[in-house]
Each structure stands twice: as C-alpha cells, then as structure tokens.
Design a protein that fits this description.
Layout (H helix, E strand, L loop, with lengths): L1 H20 L9 H4 L5 E7 L5 E12 L2 E10 L2 E12 L14 E5 L5 E9 L5 E9 L9 E8 L9 H14 L4 E2 L7
Antiparallel strand pairs: 1-2, 1-8, 1-9, 2-3, 3-4, 4-5, 5-6, 6-7, 7-8
C-alpha cells in the first residue's frame, strides 16, 4: 500500500513539473529566435476584433532586451505606420530584467497605451510563431482586448505556417472560443 502511495506521489509530482515548465510543449520559446534585425514579420491570422489587415513588423534593431521596429497595417483603406520600442522580458520571472529566455515583450505606444505580447510558440526554423497579445488601456483586462496571432516571415516568398505552428494556433484559439480571421492576403505588400 505504501509503495502505491509513493508511486502516485511521484507520478503526480512529475505531472505538475511538466505542466508548469512546458507551456504549449515549448518551454524554451524565445522572442530573440523570431525577432531578427531586418526581418519582416506578418500577422497571417488573428482573433483580434476589428478590420485591421496587412499588419507587419520590420525589425530595425535588437540589442540585449531592447527591440525597435516599424509596425505597418491597414484599417479598411487607411494605412498606418508606427515606430515602436519593445522591451523583452521573461514572463514567469518578470522581476529579473535580464532573465532568459525572453518569452514576452512590452511595447510602449505614444498615446500612453501599452501592449504586452507573449510568445506561446515559435517553430524550429524561426519563421512562424503564435503570439498572445494584450492591448492594455488604463489597466483594463477586458477579454476583447486579448487575442492570438499567427505570425510568419516572408509570405510573399511562399513561406506559410508550418503544420505544428497551425496546430498550436488552432489549439490556442479553440481554448478561447473565439473565431480567427485572415489578416494577410495576396494584396498585402
């Protein structure tokens, strides 16, 4: 009887450790694997409410935990361009500024609103990622201000999301009960 109890405790402990350390099967996700100087990253699909399409980030510089990039997107017919700064950090150890891997990024916007991005998955090639986005307005955590994005590099060159990336995005979206929509299409340039 004691042996069975010890075995159950051991299995339970291993399960808890695996669940806590292995978020979405990819415990070592790091934004620095996905964000590279000169790289253009497109939002392929999203659960973001609204009409924003053709969103892309062009990475201008990445140094230590600082990222500067240009974000361009289309809202109906209006094209917007923003120069943004991001600060990378480790979500589980946010108090330690240099703790790696950097799985999260805070983006400061000129109007005072902030954006938190959490890297949930990056594929082995570094060409596809699933990102959870929180648009923080006056510390409001309304669920409509939280969405998922499937991001890819160079879709113009035919780089589509890998099956593992699609699966991770699909699973994340299914958990939320939201519907995704296309953000990238052939007319995005």
């Amino acid at each position: 009887m004691a042996q069975l109890w010890i075995l159950q405790a051991l299995v339970f402990t291993l399960f808890v450790v695996a669940a806590l350390s292995d978020r979405n099967g990819n415990q070592d996700s790091d934004f620095t694997e996905f964000l590279k100087k000169g790289k253009t990253i497109w939002v392929f699909n999203t659960t973001e409410p609204g009409e924003v399409t053709c969103r892309r980030d062009t990475i201008l510089n990445i140094e230590d935990s600082s990222v500067s990039f240009t974000r361009q997107f289309k809202n109906n017919t209006e094209i917007s361009v923003e120069n943004l700064e991001g600060k990378l950090f480790n979500w589980e150890h946010w108090e330690s500024k240099e703790r790696k891997p950097y799985d999260s990024m805070t983006i400061s916007k000129s109007k005072g609103n902030g954006i938190e991005e959490f890297l949930e998955f990056v594929d082995t090639t570094g060409d596809c990622a699933v990102v959870k986005v929180m648009n923080i307005v006056d510390f409001n955590t309304d669920p409509s201000r939280i969405w998922r994005e499937l991001r890819v590099t160079n879709p113009l060159e035919g780089i589509d999301p890998t099956s593992e990336c699609w699966k991770t995005f699909d699973n994340a979206v299914n958990i939320t009960g939201k519907n995704w929509r296309e953000s990238y299409n052939k007319d995005c340039q």
